[in-house]
């Protein structure tokens, strides 16, 4: 049986060949199709009718959908409705324990915040973040920051509703810089409502800068100190590869192949069902799960959203992995200007946004628009349609030959150009490439780019509505340090806003899965006696494929969003009952070892020498798996899952009297595990 062949989607063309903005998320003003017709501009990020149809919202109500803003990947991928699905509807779910109905009911009630996700929107935010402590204006609304930029990107547009107000009330509005992250942590005061411990900087750091803390991460931070651990993470080349990473390098056989090698071996690889773009997604998953270079992998994931090129795109099958390797990973902890320049010379990006079809006689605006709107200054932030057109004219000549970047001077528009504050005579075809690179450097180092980058980084690592003081400080460092990403990160980590934001980020679906698996110390090796009916790929690669398909069900597989805006970062984009229940089921599969291509410790072995009373045992499990001690109310609710008469003093054995898997899974349903 061959591995699954992921269907490709050719962008910028509706199913009937049209360019309807509601069926074609790539529809842009100035786009010239093969008939020479110019499209209209639906203002993808400013028009609520079109708010993130693919990435952060539903189809507009007037087009037969449910309205904007609430992204429901679970419902879309599995056809679920708005009601709460039965908790054992997952086809892989195996629960032969007694009293399933009682346990399901208890799990839904355990977190309050978790259960409230079913309601979505502002109510769900209230359950996770509380009602807030910041006073509202006299009219009952939160004061608006008049100094904020006028543009709106997908994350900011999602936070403009009542749900966003709820989070703003709980987010620090100001802060201070200190000489080191440790000093900033020591001086930060958490004022927002949260179920997490307010003064546990080790847990906070491990949750924000990794795909999920495990015992090894916590021990490393305690051993090295906050400053020492961060310094080490910022030099990933000094951190040895783990067993899982070594297996990924060896068994995902296409990862390090050049284009010429892939081209030469394509027929043989196809016969085995091995595809380079597919293995690229699996490689990212392996790194997130197994690498000790966690901050680096977090930044790789960030830039795969920020400078997004879809994983599966017609024609890019043999070059998308090279984009990941030679652009994203090469510069993830370098200077963004270098990443941006490299991206604009890479065939994967050029083909994805149709740059190879843009010539001096037929201008295509796709890449020029996204270079401004998504990859540098941000949507509607200092440029207009004339600037987009001028940029598209300047970028002509950049093309692809045999899946390699090539500059074609005969196709370059010659003549003066002016884009925002950049102007050039552009008076020769041969010199056009140098002018293009000067323009790319200009917009990559533009003050608006600095703020947009800072806003996105702070949204990923600090809060869905990051404080302006923090964004300003990070943007200043971006300019001062010529787009050096580690310097910007150090500014963020050395300010109190980062450390005061405890409980202000919720894991996205993919982050929930990786955090769960890492907490359970997933082992990349197959257990003894494992057999497979697929001899073309290893058990390890097969297991990564299973995880990839699960992430696709969640709507959050690495790099797989077809549109160029990347996955949204904010919590209100992911409010989905179907996805949540699917996550609980998958967590149970991991707890009992049902992902059989990997080795899992038995749930009764998670805590060595477990206590012999139910309350103490639960405390040990929660400290090990979710790095907190639960409050008495939640403890009591979880103990009821173990049995209606189980109390903290009830004697238990290592299997929790047979309920260990249910108890561990219940810990993964708590808000404490959902919150980063």
UniProtKB/TrEMBL annotation:
Keywords: Coiled coil, Membrane, Transmembrane, Transmembrane helix. Pfam families: DUF1800. Residues 252-279 form a coiled coil. Residues 86-98 have a biased composition (Acidic residues). This is DUF1800 domain-containing protein. The keyword Signal does not apply. Residues 1-100 are annotated as: Disordered. The chain crosses the membrane at residues 106-125. The keyword Metal-binding does not apply.
């Amino acid at each position: 049986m061959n591995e699954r062949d992921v269907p490709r989607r050719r962008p910028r063309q509706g199913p009937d060949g049209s360019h309807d903005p509601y069926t074609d998320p790539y529809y842009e003003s100035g786009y010239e199709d093969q008939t020479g017709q110019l499209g209209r501009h639906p203002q993808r990020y400013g028009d609520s009718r079109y708010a993130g149809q693919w990435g952060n919202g539903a189809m507009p109500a007037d087009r037969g959908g449910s309205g904007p803003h609430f992204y429901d990947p679970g419902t879309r991928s599995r056809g679920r409705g708005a009601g709460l699905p039965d908790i054992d509807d997952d086809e892989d779910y195996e629960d032969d324990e007694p009293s399933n109905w009682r346990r399901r009911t208890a799990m839904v009630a355990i977190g309050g915040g978790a259960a409230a996700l079913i309601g979505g929107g502002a109510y769900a935010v209230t359950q996770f973040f509380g009602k807030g402590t910041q006073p509202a204006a006299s009219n009952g609304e939160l004061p608006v920051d008049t100094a904020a930029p006028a543009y709106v990107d997908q994350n900011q547009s999602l936070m403009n509703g009542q749900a966003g107000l709820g989070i703003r009330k709980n987010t620090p509005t100001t802060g201070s810089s200190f000489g080191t992250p440790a000093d900033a942590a020591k001086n930060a005061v958490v004022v927002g409502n949260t179920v997490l411990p307010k003064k546990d900087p080790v847990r906070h750091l491990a949750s924000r800068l990794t795909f999920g803390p495990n015992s090894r991460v916590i021990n490393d931070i305690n051993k090295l100190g906050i400053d020492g651990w961060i310094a080490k993470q910022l030099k990933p080349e000094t951190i040895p590869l783990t067993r899982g990473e070594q297996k990924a390098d060896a068994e995902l056989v296409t990862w390090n192949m050049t284009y010429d090698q892939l081209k030469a071996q394509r027929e043989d690889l196809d016969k085995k069902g091995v595809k380079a773009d597919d293995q690229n997604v699996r490689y990212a998953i392996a790194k997130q799960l197994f690498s000790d270079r966690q901050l680096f992998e977090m930044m790789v994931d960030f830039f795969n959203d920020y400078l997004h090129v879809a994983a599966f795109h017609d024609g890019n099958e043999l070059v998308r992995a090279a984009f990941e390797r030679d652009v994203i990973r090469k510069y993830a902890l370098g200077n963004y200007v270098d990443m941006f320049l490299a991206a604009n010379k890479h065939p994967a990006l050029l083909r994805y946004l149709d740059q190879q079809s843009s010539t001096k006689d037929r201008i295509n605006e796709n890449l020029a628009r996204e270079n401004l709107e998504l990859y540098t200054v941000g949507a509607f932030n200092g440029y207009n349609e004339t600037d987009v057109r001028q940029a598209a004219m300047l970028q002509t000549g950049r093309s692809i030959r045999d899946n390699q970047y090539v500059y074609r001077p005969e196709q370059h528009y010659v003549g003066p150009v002016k884009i925002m504050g950049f102007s050039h005579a552009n008076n020769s075809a041969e010199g056009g490439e140098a002018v293009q690179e000067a323009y790319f450097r200009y917009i990559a180092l533009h003050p608006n780019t600095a703020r947009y980058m800072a806003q996105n980084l702070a949204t990923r690592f600090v809060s869905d509505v990051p404080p302006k003081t923090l964004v300003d400080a990070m943007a200043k460092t971006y300019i001062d340090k010529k787009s050096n990403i580690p310097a910007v990160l150090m500014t963020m980590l050395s300010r109190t806003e980062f450390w005061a934001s405890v409980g202000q980020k919720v894991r996205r679906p993919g982050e929930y899965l990786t955090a769960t698996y890492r907490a359970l110390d997933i082992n990349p090796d197959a257990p003894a006696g494992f057999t497979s009916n697929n001899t073309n790929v290893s058990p390890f690669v097969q297991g990564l494929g299973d995880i990839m398909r699960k992430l696709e069900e969640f709507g959050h597989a690495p790099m797989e969003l077809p549109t160029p805006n990347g996955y949204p970062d904010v919590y209100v984009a992911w409010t989905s009952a179907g996805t949540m229940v699917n996550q609980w089921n998958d967590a149970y599969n991991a707890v009992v070892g049902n992902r059989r291509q990997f080795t899992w410790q038995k749930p009764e072995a998670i805590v060595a020498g477990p206590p012999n009373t139910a309350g103490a045992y639960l405390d040990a499990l929660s400290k090990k798996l979710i790095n907190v001690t639960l409050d008495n109310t939640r403890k009591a609710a979880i103990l009821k899952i173990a049995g209606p008469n189980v109390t903290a003093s009830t004697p238990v054995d290592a299997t929790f009297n047979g309920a260990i898997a249910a108890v561990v899974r219940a810990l993964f349903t708590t808000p404490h595990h959902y919150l980063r």
